[in-house]
Amino acid sequence: MTHTTPSVDLQALMADLKVLTDLESPSTDPAAIQHVMDVVEGWARDLGAETHALGGGTRVFHFGVQPGATERPILVLTHADTVWPRGTLDSMPWRVDGQRLHGPGTYDMKAGIVGLFHALRALQGQWPRGGVTVLLSPDEEIGSPSSRDHIERAAHEARVALVVEPPVADTHALKTGRKGTGSYLLTFTGVASHAGNKPGEGASAITAAAHATLELQALARPDEGTTVSVGLIRGGSAVNVIPAHATLEIDLRVSTLAEADRVDAAVRAWTPRDPRVTVQVAGGLNRPPFEQGAGTLALFEQAREVARELGFDLTHTVVGGGSDGNFTAPIIPTLDGLGAPGDGAHAQHEHVRLDRWPDHVRLLTELLRRV
Ligand SMILES: [Zn+2]
């Protein structure tokens, strides 16, 4: 290595993470999310960043980015929201248990934000060519409705994207691909009638929803990474009424855009057997698949080399869950999972591994230097 291994202060990492964790920030609470962003923006300003607040609550921090420069920056994606409602700290408090640091939103992804800023500080103002753009999203956990456009625009202006979502649970595995995710809401409207006296005059919305459930789930191709699951179904008004109303909601995961198109066309073309029942389809693909590309694998090889020098083995895999990396991967090489190791995203046992975290901060620091 041309640089000495960056020193990482675990106590300082923990102190910064405590500050962000104490500021509970569910996706549905913009004011709480802005408080987290204010703290992070303060860290960015201390490092000399140029900061911008964008529409919808997204913030962007530029470190050594020169407008109009020929070399484009590294884009780093972060999010300030968590899946945990306010008050979760009462039942799931900040707690250190051996090498595990527990708390809501720690692993996903406040420790990723903290590790990133320690990595940026370790660069001591020696920004990589083109500089670094950090984007802080307010709504990643609900599919990034307000930040998606900003993320895609930033990707078009950058050369690579690094995502500080956590590595795969309880491993040193980075994420070099993610499934695309979609959802559909199907609303069925039939004809109500007395179930005992005049069943033939009714047209059951529930029967149509049941057929749709079986036939649309059959579109799954697990071998190709396509899963289709009806996760919610509702309908009817009373047990003795042929039901005029039903809804169902579908969760879709795909590994390729071709599969997304195939399933989307089939969902939209589906028609009830009883012509008196109508169906309305809402929804579609939310995040495109993050297909594992050559540029991403080359980034991973750089990361693996750094990890080897730091004394640990890095692996990579494709995962089912989406992230904001799904929006940048179709535009620029994207390496995801560069946050803090641990386990329990969106679960009661959410925690960061204190014995492994400093290594991943060193990894990110060196990667920012070399990419
Ligand atoms: Zn996350």
TrEMBL record:
The keyword Metal-binding applies. Residues 176-270 form the Peptidase M20 dimerisation domain. InterPro entries: Bact_exopeptidase_dim_dom, Pept_M20_glutamate_carboxypep, Peptidase_M20, Peptidase_M20_dimer, Peptidase_M20A. One of its GO terms (molecular function) is carboxypeptidase activity. It holds the Pfam family Peptidase_M20. Coiled coil: none annotated. It comes from the Bacteria. Gene3D superfamilies: 3.30.70.360, Zn peptidases. Keywords: Carboxypeptidase, Hydrolase, Metal-binding, Protease. CDD domains: M20_CPDG2. This is Carboxypeptidase. It comes from Deinococcus sedimenti.
